Amino acid sequence: MIVLDRVGVTYQAESGPVEALRDVGFGVGRGELLALVGPSGCGKSTLLRVVAGLRRPTHGAVEVDGRVVTGPIPAVGMVFQAPVLLRWRTVRDNVLLPAELAGLERRRYRERADYLLRLVGLGGFADRLPRELSGGMQQRAAICRALLLDPPLLLMDEPFGALDAMTRDEMNLELLRVWGEPAAARKTVLFVTHSIPEAVFLADRVVVMSPRPGRVARVVDVPLPRPRTPATRAAPQFGALALEIHETLVSATAG
Fold first, then answer.
1. Which has the closest alpha carbon to 32: 183, 168, 163?
2. What is the 3-state secondary structure (H, E, C) of 35-73?
3. Residue 213 CA, distance from chain mean position
4. Which of 8, 231, 235, 253 is the most exposed place for a label (fewest CB within 10 A)?
5. Angle 135-147/165-179 helices, nearest 10 degrees?
6. From residue 23, how far is each of 89, 135, 235 by CA, in Å?
7. 120 falls in which pLDDT band (50, 70, 90)?
């Protein structure tokens, strides 16, 4: 679904050119959930923007679904660290925003919006304003908004980073439930996180990034069985994988 071929990004700052990414190359299979971990400033968010076509790479190329990315791609949903809900619109109206921006008929997507809200446990909150929802509930609404147009690709930039630990764990389970139902229709997900345990719990593979300029230090397979549950975090293999990724990060940072 995604192919990154020796992607490099250098941007101009007031102090001069800054190399954010260097020779980044990996692929993401259709229906795969792949996590990116790395130190702050290593270019993880920049890489998401490159995949989405919001930033042109300085070097290399990106393909999504067999096509070279030369500008913003329409078939993508994005979820950010903050829910970014419009405070004057109801939850349902926030979820319907992508259809309106695309010039699509709102009525055609109302039923899907309500279905998605029910799917994430917000069926009774469609007519509420964002201020009436908790942080975790707002992020669920943001995920519904990203899924409204049924994009095959979902890019998530630390979507649960601002949540408390318990809510974050709940949102991990919620994401896996939405992503995994049904398995044949799974989205391709590229998920950025600073949390090693979160990456191991969610992903099929974890790409470990080096400090800036960001490079691929290692790709770690996560062969934990699905569906994953809270008990997964207590499995010896889970701890071994988290330690392996941690040691890779330490080595990449030291090197």
1. 183
2. EEECCCCCCHHHHHHHHHCCCCCCEEEEEECCEECCCCC
3. 21
4. 231
5. 20
6. 42, 37, 35
7. confident
The helix/strand count (H/E) of the chain reads as 8, 10
pLDDT given for residue 184 in this prediction = 66
Cα 114 to chain centroid, rounded:
23
* Three-state SS at 99: helix
The tokens for 114 are 């309500």
Instruction: Report how far apart, in Å, the C-alpha atoms of 223 and of each of 10, 101, 136, 141, 182 are.
Output: 35, 40, 28, 30, 20
pLDDT score for 150: 87
Give the pLDDT band of residue 59 (cuts 50, 70, 90): very high
DSSP 210: P
Query: Using an 8 Å Cβ cutoff, are 207 and 37 in contact?
Result: yes
CA atoms within 13 A on the CB side of 134: 10
